[in-house]
Amino acid sequence: MISTIVPTFDRAPQLERALASVEAQTLQPGELIVVDDGSTDRTPEMLAERFPAARYLHQENRGVSAARNRGIEAARGEWIALLDSDDEWLPEKLERQLAALGASDAKICHSDEIWIRNGRRVNPGRRHAKCSGRIFRDCLPLCAISPSSVVIHRSVLEEVGSFDEQLPACEDYDMWLRVTARHPVLLVDEPLVVKHGGHSDQLSRTVPGLDRYRILALEKILASGVLGAGDRRAALTTLIEKTAIFAEGAAKRGRDEEAATFRARGRRWAAQRDGEAAG
What are the pLDDT digits (tens) for 119-136? Predict the structure, then answer.
């Protein structure tokens, strides 16, 4: 069974569009769980009127990671399909992905996507091209997997752990590093998701200094002990690069103490990489 998890916060109009796209699936999920992360708008009323069959879970505002984790914990399905409340699925999304998973041994599948920014379609850059297989190194520069495109087996989440609720952003980057360090990823190479961006409450627009959280995620995966030698070297190199860029940005903004702290972290990681290479 597939459990669809939709976290939301004060996005009733977008949520209605997202849930309508679930309702339109040619392969229906076994359950639809909406986790309301403390909304103060018409979210409960809209759900009661339009989607009474959805399981509605309400919690105090704790962020998207806590909302996703709450939904995953409550889900009964062996497969978890994530959908952010500002995105939508094309009608054959679940059918195409479950068919592809059924023909492989993979435990996580994603797809290509359509990008809409401020109501207009835009073309993603080449660095956003989707990959399949052992893609850990492709996930190092940026978040290479969209949560709304993912169908993942529950056992993978039990193995790698839940979304990190201490990260106010880049929680998906952190999750996919943990997943791709251990598992190959299947790609359905066609757009099955519409991602809507440009709105004022997007995390990428409301949380400053996103690389700060990517740095933390890289430090976590390096400390986990799961990386082979090649992946570890690649992760160390990316960490050193991101730390240097963040330190430079902090210095330009007059945050000299923070810049010094991150430069020191970068030197420690560079020394560790060089020491491992020499050994």
Answer: 889 987 788 889 999 999
Contact between residue 125 and residue 131 where contact means Cβ atoms under 8 Å apart = no
Which residues contact residue 208 at a Cβ distance below 8 angstroms, ignoring those fewer than 6 apart?
Answer: none
Residue 69: name the closest of 35, 32, 107 by CA: 35
Q: At what angle do helices 12-23 and 43-50 cross, to 10 degrees?
A: 30
**Phi–psi pair at 153, nearest 5 degrees:** -75, 140
Task: Give me the sign of the Cα torsion angle 188, 135, 147, 142.
Answer: negative
pTM for this structure? 0.92
Euclidean distance between CA atoms 129 and 111, whole angstroms: 10
Q: What is the pLDDT of residues 9-65, one digit of tens each?
A: 999 999 999 999 999 999 999 999 999 999 999 999 999 999 999 999 999 999 999
Task: Return the residue matching tokens 């598992």.
Answer: 183
What whole-number distance in Å separates Cα of residue 236 and Cα of residue 272? Answer: 9
Least Cα distance to 71 among 29, 105, 12 occurs for 29
Measured CA to CA, the distance from residue 18 to residue 29 in angstroms comes to: 14
Partners of residue 109 on adjacent β-strands: 151, 186
Encode pLDDT of 68-86 as tens digits: 999 999 999 999 999 999 9
Q: Please tell me the total number of residues recorded for the chain in this structure.
A: 279
